[in-house]
Write a structure and sequence with these properties.
Mean pLDDT: 94
Number of helices: 6
Distance between the termini: 42 Å
Low-confidence stretches: none
Shape: globular
Strand content: 25-35%
Bound molecules: S-adenosylmethionine
Helix content: 25-40%
Number of strands: 12
């Protein structure tokens, strides 16, 4: 059974000599994803944690576009952690911190800031992870957001999703079937189920932003009054 649907560098472009991997989807999706983040992030200061950062290109690009925020990328795959660090060094950005290993299979996962407990986050970002991981990864992502976002904080989740029990395009239904055939624990998740998880974590699914190619950015919000 496949462990990863995407292991950057295994197919496509080989790593650069310094370990930087290139994800083809990054070039297609980063501007659209950024357009869903920028209004909120432009009003914030503090820390943004990315989960499942992959090559590290989104974190490097978005850190460059938001120098008023500190970005903390993460992943579980050693070659991806090396690529994220290589992109960080290549970027020379002071507001992009070293990657940390965060495994969303762990229900008690926490982020750290330079080895210390990280405190509360302005925002979290997770792109294209929930459909290539078991359902517990979605559970642990959203529960972790409930624990670690500050009042008024947001969790942004990008990818393909079903809406209220239905696929939004035939291509997503076919992709879902292909994923489940490869690994029965994977699959395109449903906004209704994610919204239920959010409520249990003290969050609300505040917005569903359509993206190109039948993807969405789901915006989960922690109430402004809570801390
Ligand atoms: C399809 S890739 C997406 C990478 C990147 N976010 C992007 O959009 O280009 C999925 C990523 O999730 C990571 N991942 C898979 N399972 C994970 C887990 N349990 N916890 C954290 N990251 C995980 C993989 O290593 C991989 O980098």
């Amino acid at each position: 059974m496949a462990e990863f649907v995407v292991e950057f560098g295994k197919s496509g472009a080989p790593p650069a000599p310094d370990g930087r991997l290139d994800g083809p989807a990054f070039h297609r999706n980063h501007d659209a994803i950024w357009s869903a983040l920028t209004a909120f992030l432009s009003t914030q200061t503090g820390d943004v944690l990315e989960l499942g950062s992959g090559t590290g290109q989104h974190a490097a690009c978005f850190a460059q576009r938001s120098p008023h925020l500190t970005w903390w990328p993460s992943d579980i795959q050693p070659s991806h952690l090396a690529s994220i660090e290589a992109w960080r060094r290549h970027s020379g950005l002071a507001n992009l911190r070293a990657p940390q290993r965060i495994d969303l299979n762990d229900p008690a996962w926490v982020w750290t800031a330079d080895g210390q407990a990280g405190g509360t986050l302005a925002a979290m970002l997770c792109n294209n992870v929930l459909h290539i991981a078991p359902w517990r990864v979605a559970q642990n992502l959203i529960a972790g957001a409930g624990r670690q976002l500050r009042a008024g904080g947001r969790l942004f989740v990008y990818g393909p999703f079903m809406r209220d029990g239905a696929h939004t395009a035939p291509s997503n239904a076919a992709f879902d079937a292909k994923l489940r055939a490869e690994n029965p624990d994977w699959g395109v998740r449903d906004t209704r189920d994610l919204s239920t998880l959010a409520q249990a974590a003290g969050l609300t699914l505040a917005e569903i932003v359509p993206m190109p190619s039948n993807n969405f950015v789901l915006v989960f919000a922690r109430a402004a009054g809570r801390n």
